[in-house]
Specification:
127 residues; mainly beta; eight-stranded antiparallel beta sheet; 47% strand; globular; disordered N terminus
Length: 127
Amino acid sequence: MKTTLKLFSFLFVMMVAVSACSKDDDPADNDFFVDNYKGDISYTVLNGDGDVSKGPGTVWVTKVGDTYSFRFDRGIPNITGIKMEKGSNTKIFFSDEALGSITIDNNDLDITYSKDSKVWTADCKRD
């Protein structure tokens, strides 16, 4: 009987854990996407001054309220002040004259972001 109870308890905990990290989570609703992501990152300035070529790196995703920040290593400037709107699911849309998209799900972070003649890219997996 104790073994059966332990087994059912374990299965219940696993069900809750798996359902808590759905691909359908909305970044505006929770902090699930706050984490470290590793993969290929790059930074390009249209005048060519300060470029960081595509290569391995880390992006740290942080959130305060409904505002996300993306901190890069390798000397790449951070992307800050990205507002989330409820219902955008895993895509972040910009209202500050920037172009591109930031897509987050339970395993991946993909960034193609352009603002003020600068372009950030990231193709990363959760660390």
